[in-house]
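User: Let's play a game. I give you a shape written as tokens, and you guess the letters that built it. Ready? Here's round one.
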């Protein structure tokens, strides 16, 4: 029941769906393993990914810019085999740079992880991603 409610809530927010876990979601997740001081960013290993089409909304992407950890996002795109998907740094005119906003939109909202796992960078604890839903429940021994 909780999982179903979470799925509905997350889908309504547009971050997790039957299509997969969006990188926007991943960029805001961290490990909560006891004793871990640095559980961010989670490493991602995808066994299945896909790209979905999402309407481009430059205002939304501009408003998300201050909340995005850009270096963590670049690290994630590299882990997923897309090292050149984003520029090395956020442009000075990022909020008004349509090309950059489209790149960021694509990475954050259109690239999704369907199957794979997330891994705590400090403890190595793995969290499976199945059908696009990351399971962040801790194993009993963690």
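Assistant: Ready! My guess for every position:
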């Amino acid at each position: 029941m909780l999982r179903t409610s979470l799925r509905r809530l997350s889908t309504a927010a547009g971050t997790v769906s039957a299509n997969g876990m969006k990188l926007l979601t991943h960029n805001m997740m961290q490990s909560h393993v006891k004793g871990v001081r640095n559980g961010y960013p989670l490493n991602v290993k995808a066994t299945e990914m896909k790209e979905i089409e999402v309407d481009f909304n430059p205002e939304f992407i501009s408003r998300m810019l201050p909340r995005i950890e850009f270096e963590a996002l670049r690290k994630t795109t590299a882990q997923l085999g897309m090292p050149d998907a984003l520029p090395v740094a956020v442009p000075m005119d990022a909020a008004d740079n349509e090309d950059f906003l489209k790149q960021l939109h694509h990475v954050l909202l259109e690239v999704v992880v369907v199957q794979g796992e997330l891994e705590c960078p400090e403890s190595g604890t793995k969290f499976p991603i199945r059908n696009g839903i990351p399971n962040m429940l801790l194993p009993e021994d963690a």
